[in-house]
Design brief:
The chain is built from two helices and no strands. With 78 residues, it is mostly helical. Helix 1 packs antiparallel against helix 2. The longest helix has 29 residues.
């Protein structure tokens, strides 16, 4: 069961903070998964797909860094 009004009473973490944590984890997970896909494409000699996945991986890393910086400032980590 999910609630669109959960404000941290159940989880102890406000929705916006949880959402940022989820976003960072998803970006990092995606960057890791793309590494395998890049290796697969390299093995197959498909440089076009390698380039696409490298760009996507860079975007995922950038998203993770942006999210981490925002979390750090919001959670008081300096």
């Amino acid at each position: 069961m999910t609630s669109s009004t959960e404000t941290g009473d159940v989880t102890g973490t406000r929705d916006k903070d949880y959402n940022l944590i989820w976003y960072v984890e998803s970006c990092l997970s995606n960057a890791l998964r793309l590494e395998q896909y890049i290796q697969d494409a390299e093995r197959d000699g498909d440089n076009e797909v390698v380039e696409l996945f490298r760009k996507a991986q860079a975007d995922s890393r950038k998203g993770a860094e942006l999210g981490k910086n925002l979390l750090r400032s919001r959670l008081g980590g300096g």
